[in-house]
Amino acid sequence: MKKSILALGVIAAFAAAGAHAQSSPTTPFSIEPRAGLSIPMGDDSDDLEVGLAFTGDVLYQFTPQLAVYAGYNYNRYAFKDTDEADGEIKGFDAGLRFSLSPMAGFTPFLKGGALYQKAGITGDGGSLSSDSEFGFQLGGGVEVPISPRFSFTPQASFNKVEDAQYVNVEAGLRIRL
């Protein structure tokens, strides 16, 4: 987890430095690191506390309305009945993001895509993980411009892989390259 967070931080720092140094128009590429809460749903909500979510996506903007995204996400949960172990869901996401018509100061968007993730349990006695499985993600949010290269991007997404269901509520920073 620390390596993933560190890697996202390094990428964001280099992108921000490069974006600041450039005076040419932005490219269709952007990165979007996010962090927030991961809320277990269904049967998992009986055993797991609300956890933390860390996500990083790379986006390619085909048109002003349509972008494709791909990235990595990590969700960590504490068990309600024990302090001896933690649960985690981690893996890759990819999909489409559709921006609606801009409104006063923000642009709403919808997103949907595929997940390829695995669940695991880590604790004092070692770790146990499942095989990676495919799932889906549906969500939406708003993009609030801060400058031509930076936007604040609060969003929520419903995620389902096999029996695991969770909702991520995150805030991020979209950095146009």
Description:
- The protein has 177 residues and is mainly beta.
- The chain has one domain: Porin, CATH 2.40.160.
- Helices cover 14% and strands 62% of the residues.
- It contains two helices and ten strands.
- It has helices at residues 2-21, 44-47, and strands at residues 29-41, 51-61, 66-78, 85-99, 107-123, 126-129, 133-145, 150-152, 155-161, 164-176.
- Strands 1, 2, 3, 4, 5, 6, 7, 8, 9 and 10 form a ten-stranded antiparallel β-sheet that branches.
- A hairpin with a 6-residue loop joins β3 and β4.
- The radius of gyration is 17 Å and the shape is elongated.
- The model is unreliable at 6-10 and 12-24 (pLDDT under 50).
CATH topology: Porin
Domain count, please report it. Answer: 1
Strand content: over 45%
Note the main sheet. Answer: 10 strands, antiparallel
Share of helix, binned: 10-25%
What letter string, H or E per element, gives the SSE order? HEHEEEEEEEEE
Radius of gyration: 17 Å
Termini separation: 25 Å
Low-confidence stretches: 6-10, 12-24
> In CATH, what is the class?
Mainly Beta
How many DSSP helices? 2
Secondary structure category:
mainly beta
What's the β-strand tally? 10
What's the pLDDT, averaged over the residues?
89
> Shape, please?
elongated
CATH architecture: Beta Barrel
